[in-house]
Every structure is written in C-alpha cells, then in structure tokens.
Amino acid sequence: MVITGRNLRRLVRVPTLIVFATVQPVLFVLLFTYVFGGAIRPSGVEHYVDFLLPGIFVLAIAFGASQTGVAIADDLATGMIDRFRALPMTRSAVLAGRTVADAVRNLFVLLLMTGVGYAIGFRFHAGPVAAAGAIGLALLIGVALSWINALVGLLVHDAETAGLAGLMPVIVLVFTSSTFVPIATMPGWLRAFAEINPVTVTVDALRALVLGGPTAEHVWQALAWIVGLLVVTVPVAVLRYRRTVAG
C-alpha cells in the first residue's frame, strides 16, 4: 500500500502522465468516429463507435502500460529503488505496488473514455453485468501489460529506452489487429497474422461483452492470454528485481 500510494500521489503531482494516457486515445475515438466512421461499416453493428471503443480501451491501456517501464527504469536510475530496500516489505512489493497503482489509473482512464463514448453515441448493449465484465477484463489486460513493461524497465535501466520498447510493439500489434477495422477487410497475409494477434483476441472479447451475443469463447481466449502472460512475466520480473537490488 505504501508503494501504491506513492505512485498514485506521483500521478497527482505530475498530471501530464494522466494527460498522456487519456488525450491520445480520446483523439483516436473522435478521429476514427467522425472522419473514418462513415466509410467503415462493420457487419452487424449499427454505430461504428460501438465497434471502435472496445479497441480504444485496449489501445489506451497499452499506451499507459508503457509508462510502467518508464517509471521503474527512472526509479532505478535515480536511486529510489535503493531507498525502498530500507523499508520493511517484500522485494516484490515494489513491482506489485506499481501495477496496482497502474490499475487504479486504468480504471480512471476507462471510465473517462466511456463517458466520452456515451457523449458521441456509444452504448453497452449487453446490460450492466456484461459492461462490468468488459471493464474488469480491460483492467486485467492492463495488469498483464504492466508486468511486461515492469520487466522491460528492469532490463533496460533507462527511462527513454523503456518507453520506446514499450510503445513500438503496441503500435505494431494494435494496427495489425481488429482494433479499428474488421479483419475480414484485410489482405489475406495480414488477416492470417491478425487472427492470431493477442490484441485481436482481447479486443474481440471486449467487443463481445459490449455488443452482446456469444461471449464465452472470446472471453476464455482472452483470459488464457492474460494468465499465460502473468505466469511468465511475474516470476521473471520478481527474479530480475531481486538480482537488480542485490547487485
């Protein structure tokens, strides 16, 4: 809780961190809805914004998660991690506190974007339970991505490099997924990659919870990706952190 509180207070003191995490996705929502929405007609969806917003949820969370690696690398560079060693807490508490703070930030971002979406016509069509499930699943995606970026920050030890390393894969994966357009409209070679793209899997799960219809298969596939990422990255990140502070 100490580490989580410290990271949340830092967000308040440096509001540009929230601005970075929210302004860009909101601009994407407005741009794609009003500029390209008239030309993109996903099958079975009346309003493009209903198709778009679940993808923007993942985009916003992924962009925000890159700041986890930046923060960890910055704490290493400034010696803050060394100060944490004097506190009576487990070694993994620093990383866990960082990811919990990121989850709180992500909840704020998701609620803000939902509000913007509602202002331009977005609706949850499957009821309040599915809506809560969509928000919860998005938060779990954020937790997994935060742990990945925490590991990146521990590996590179440089905030700028950590930021680039966190953003570049996101840009590639998001723009080769179903985030903005149905994958059926893509060329065959790109569609083959998009179908196995983890961003497509998670976006499709959120979209199913938003639009209604069969959800179980999509959600279970997304959860499998999330659990798999956590099983791999959490112990590796904790081990790397222990070696970093010990050496």
TrEMBL record:
Q: What GO cellular component term, any one, is given?
A: ATP-binding cassette (ABC) transporter complex
Q: Do you know which Pfam families this protein is assigned to?
A: ABC2_membrane
Which parts of the sequence belong to the ABC transmembrane type-2 domain?
16-244
- Compartment(s): Cell membrane; Membrane
TM stretches of this protein: 12-36, 51-73, 107-126, 132-156, 163-184, 219-239
For membrane topology, the record states: Multi-pass membrane protein
Q: Which InterPro entries match?
A: ABC2_TM, ABC2_TM_bact-type, ABC_2_transport, Nod_factor_ABC_transporter
Q: Which UniProt keywords apply?
A: Antibiotic resistance, Cell membrane, Membrane, Transmembrane, Transmembrane helix, Transport
| Protein's UniProt keywords contain Transmembrane helix | yes
- Provide a GO biological process annotation: response to antibiotic
Name the family the entry cites.
Belongs to the ABC-2 integral membrane protein family.
Q: Which PANTHER family match?
A: NODULATION PROTEIN J (PTHR43229)
The name this protein carries in UniProt is Transport permease protein
Q: Which organism is it from?
A: Kribbella italica
